[in-house]
Amino acid sequence: MARTTFIHVNQHKLRANRKVPPGQREPVLTVKDYQSNRYAFDAVVVNAAGEEMARVVYRPEKPKSCGAVLWMETMLEVLVDPEVEVCAGELAGEVRPVVAMLPD
Question: Domain residue spans in the chain?
Answer without folding.
Answer: 6-73, 76-104
